[in-house]
Design a protein that fits this description.
With 247 residues, this protein is of the alpha/beta class. It contains eight helices and ten strands. It has helices at 10-19, 39-48, 68-83, 102-113, 133-143, 161-169, 187-194, 233-244; strands at 2-7, 23-26, 53-56, 88-91, 120-123, 147-150, 175-179, 198-201, 204-206, 229-231. The strands form two sheets. Strands 1-2-3-4-5-6-7-8 form an eight-stranded parallel barrel, surrounded by seven helices. The protein has a two-stranded antiparallel sheet with strand order 9-10. It is globular.
Length: 247
């Protein structure tokens, strides 16, 4: 089994490698569930870590029903990321009726693989908002998707174990990676009961805000709009220990 850490900085990428993770998902704005990182952040993270870097392609926060303009932006981002030498891209889209949007997903995959035919493709947690996630697995595999990131359509992956297990047992050929509110103590059940191929977590801790940051400049978190997260090395190490214990 693999351990993937979601990071939002080059320092986080280095921390994940140092603590024993297998790969990273790179994004910005973990506070918003992640959006596409900047060019500079991608370059810095590739320099900071030797781990495989999977870059999130998500043009905005919110749902996964994208306009033509948003898909055009996402396709350009996927193409550019592939040019930089990343290991893979993490993408996905839904139609207005909640089905996996296979046409949009194929468009994004084609854009990324136009630059690197061997690029890994991960379909992200849009699957958790889809009306028929199991029914989409074979079609996604046929499009060239390697891995699905999912909580099993539950608020936390630990509560989605029955669906995660069903996805694993569907035999689509896809790797099923459990992610979404994963806590260290959840890892044994996700490994042993769901049988997933990988665990994904952010291993994040709240960053320290400067004293002068009394004026809120955003609204992502009404309780603390100045909050941001950093990768916690000890949480990554703890996840590695739980993942390998008794395996």
């Amino acid at each position: 089994m693999k351990l993937e850490i979601a990071v939002a900085s080059a320092a986080g990428a280095a921390t994940a490698e140092h603590a024993g993770a297998d790969r990273i998902e790179l994004c910005s704005a973990l506070e918003l569930g992640g959006v596409t990182p900047s060019a500079g952040l991608i370059e810095a993270s590739l320099s900071a870590s030797r781990l495989p870097v999977q870059v999130l392609i998500r043009p905005r926060p919110g749902d996964f029903v994208y306009s033509a303009e948003e898909l055009h932006t996402a396709a350009r981002e996927a193409r550019w990321c592939a040019q930089q030498g990343v290991a893979g891209v993490v993408l996905g889209a839904l139609s207005a009726n909640g089905e996996v949007d296979l046409q949009a997903t194929e468009q994004l995959i084609a854009a990324a693989r136009s630059e690197n035919p061997d690029l890994e493709i991960v379909f992200h947690r849009a699957i958790d908002q889809a009306v028929n996630p199991l029914g989409a697995l074979d079609a996604l595999f046929a499009l060239g998707v390697k891995r699905i990131l999912t909580s099993g359509q539950a608020p936390r992956a630990a509560a989605g174990i029955p669906t995660l297990k069903a996805m694993v047992q569907a035999g689509s050929g896809l790797e099923i990676m459990a992610g979404g509110g994963v806590r260290i103590d959840d890892i044994p059940a996700l490994r042993d009961q769901a049988g997933v191929s990988a665990i994904h977590l952010s291993a994040k801790a709240k960053g320290a805000a400067a004293r002068s940051a009394a004026l809120a400049l955003g609204s992502a978190d009404g309780t603390d709009p100045n909050a941001y997260f950093v990768t916690d090395e000890e949480l990554v190490r703890a996840a590695v220990r739980r993942l390998t214990a008794d395996s």
